[in-house]
Amino acid sequence: MSIQIPRGTQDILPGTVELWQYVEAQARDICRRYNYKEVRTPIFEHTELFKRSVGDTTDIVQKEMYSFKDRGDRDLTLRPEGTAAVVRSYVENKMFGDAAQPTKLYYIGPMFRYERPQSGRYRQFVQFGIEAIGSSDPAVDAEVIALAVDYYRSLGLSKIKVVLNSLGDPASRKAHREALIQHFEPRIEEFCGDCQNRLQKNPLRILDCKKDRNHELMKTAPSITEYLNEESQRYYDKVQELLDMMDIPFEKDSNLVRGLDYYQHTVFEIMSEAEGFGAITTLSGGGRYNGLVQDIGGPEMPGIGFAMSIERLLLALQAEGVTLPVETGLDCYVVALGDRAKDYAAKLVHELRLAGASAEKDYLDRKIKAQFKAADRVNARYVAVLGDDELDRGVINVKDMATGEQTEVSLSEAAAYITKK
Ligand code: HAM
Questions:
Q1: Which of 3, 159, 192, 254 would be 225's cystine partner, CB 3.0–4.6 Å?
Q2: Class of domain 332-420
């Protein structure tokens, strides 16, 4: 039996990989404009990092991590998300001491979660994410949301919606936590085992439970917005005011709690409203994590960021019928007839490639008609035809495939002529 790809993963083949390269290049470009610098961290980290940051009682840590022991008996985990690793790197490399502040970083790379695969949900997926660490100015919150929205818009998505909430500061969260315990405790035995465990440890997580989401107590649960203290409310208002000024529409949703524990104040998700996008409509999510740097052993430094998967982005583009301007054609295909001409074709494609053009020739000893077909298949803009006869005369026939126009060019100038065109 042949070996198959692991469940929840995908091969990204030529023909599709160009779309990935395009959106990744656009991501890098928008980060350049917003002044975020790339950081690359390992694919695996100490398991403890995710327990401490994403949170012991979250689904990610309890059910979805690819954790293993290495041969030195260390507990390691394939990263399920990027924020924890970036903050670990920020602390370890003392980036808080850099002259330029806040520290603004981005990453594009694979993440791993053992989830039930379906459209838009994979076990290995690629996140593009940003983190801005070192400022608690609400303008950074607005900037992070603006970057995400601008990126989607610049790629041609229009059916997107920003959903915004505030989880408040630790004092507000504490008051909300107590209200949640009071609300759920009398009937907690009607909830799943996970929720029963979460009641005392982390009742906010109950609101994020997939199993019990339709329980009547969920709808009447106290909302965090009723417990925001004055300072948290002021912060939330300012973020909204800035988004309004930047023409970034949003909807408020006091039930948006996110699935990771490190958030305070601003949280947001961006959803696709395109028809046929599928059951999972969240394109990206993020928020502010003011306590996280300290939890990981660094100084008290506030942070905010977001992440999106490229997989869901491409699904949204498809659902909205957006075609990306991806170029896949070849500059020149060299068709050769006769043994000497074939050898010369090898030299000519080499010259073309050195000059910066993409070039290809036949390697299967095909007849001339089949070589033309091959040129067609790779969408060649020019086809250069060389026979032993042309070789003797020191010329080559260059055909412009768009216009059909044919020009005889001297062999010594062929590469320069085609490259210039
Ligand atoms: P998250 O909401 O867990 O947040 O994931 C962010 C995004 O990653 C999702 O909106 C989705 O696009 C993508 N994603 C997550 N799981 C999957 C999956 N199984 N298959 C495909 N795509 C997936 C975080 O990861 C936070 N680190 C975001 C953040 C950055 N917060 C602050 N800074």
A1: 254
A2: alpha beta
Q: In the structure, what pLDDT confidence band is assigned to residue 136 with cuts at 50, 70 and 90?
A: very high
Q: Does the annotation place 182 within a ligand binding site?
A: no
127 annotated binding-site participant: yes
pTM over 0.85: yes
Q: Is there a contact between 114 and 123 (Cβ–Cβ < 8 Å)?
A: yes
Q: What is the DSSP letter of 123?
A: S
Pocket test for ligand 1, best of 264, 293, 312, 317 (most atoms within 8 A of CB): 312
Give Cβ neighbours of residue 404 (< 8 Å, ≥ 6 apart).
Answer: none
Distance (angstroms) between ligand 1 centre and the Cα of 127 equals 7
- Quote the ligand 1 centre to 303 CA distance (angstroms): 17
CATH code of 17-169+229-319, in short, is: 3.30.930.10
pLDDT in tens, 203-238: 998 988 888 989 999 999 999 999 999 999 999 999
Q: Is 362 helix (H, G, I), strand (E, B) or coil?
A: coil
